[in-house]
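Continuing the batch. This is chain 6 of the set; chains 1 through 5 are on the previous pages. Same settings as before, nothing changed between runs. Recording input and output for traceability.
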Amino acid sequence: KPLLIAGGGVLYSGASRTLAAFAEAHDVPVAETQAGKSSIAASHPLAVGSVGVTGTSAANALAEEADVILAVGTRLQDFTTGSWALFKNPDRRFIGLNVQVFDATKHRALPLVADAKAGLEELSANLAGWRAGKGWREKAESGRTAWLEEAGRFTGRTNTVPPSDAQVVGASGGLPGELHKHWQAERPFGYHLEYGYSCMGYEIAGGIGVKMALPERDVVVLVGDGSYLMMNSEIATSVLIGAKLTIVVLDNRGYGCITRLQMATGSERFNNLFVDTRHAALPDIDFRAHAESLGAIAERVTTIDELEAALDRARGNDRTTVIVIETDPFVTTEAGGHWWDVAVPEVSERRAVEAARSAYETALPDQRLGD
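Output for chain 6:
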């Protein structure tokens, strides 16, 4: 019952075809980290999607049962491993295929120190004729089908105003967790997200870098209003150097992601949405006008239909286009995902915090930091 976890090293090595060939030759399902997303075509029958805290139900179900985890070009960080509570098979073994000895040996993995492409090729040659146990591929494919049907409930077309981040992702292309679960990348480097250190403000500058590296591609940047306010001046740079981007700003009037995390740990909402701050007046920021002042073409839309039409217009524009859409800060994809080790106070007067602490303590014993 092997599972291959594809990290960013697969993309850096140019190993996407090798990865697909390995999966097909040995009936090994492939899950992807944030950095490894787009390593394998989303439509491939053995692609089970994102893994870990922001993972699909298909990938995480296999991870719980897998007896061999082949970690290729990944750091096996906290989100990927569900805070080391995701892999539940008591007899599981990790194989770390990585150019870095430190990453190849994490959590007592059997190290295979090699480039992703060369390592997969040699490993496949030595496994010639071997395939995973009977029914494992069928389990992966049925899980993938069930996940795509479930995900469609969150990303499907809607007339709801404001839409959710997931519905915007379904139309345009919100953000780390929703993209990891829902974005259907069909070719290498069809997805890029800096998640190693949660670098807010990276998005637009990162988009310029992608456009410089792949000038023939249309580059769509999704950014929340909070991150936009941290670093938006690269819009002017993109116009200056002719690095045309389509930037979709999801305006939920604050930091919706952190608000949801506060609520999930039993806390009262505090200081992340504008409405929850101490304020003299609530700001009403005109992101469209601001983007225009930096030289971009800009418009504000309300519905998913309007967003799709604006995206079509942006393709024909001669420079960077910014599309602003208001989103609901509270709606998120409930399906998929996994527990994350975010500590909750032991003592509180709030019953919601006490309940969250109890759930936290119940989950802790599932962590397994070494084999």
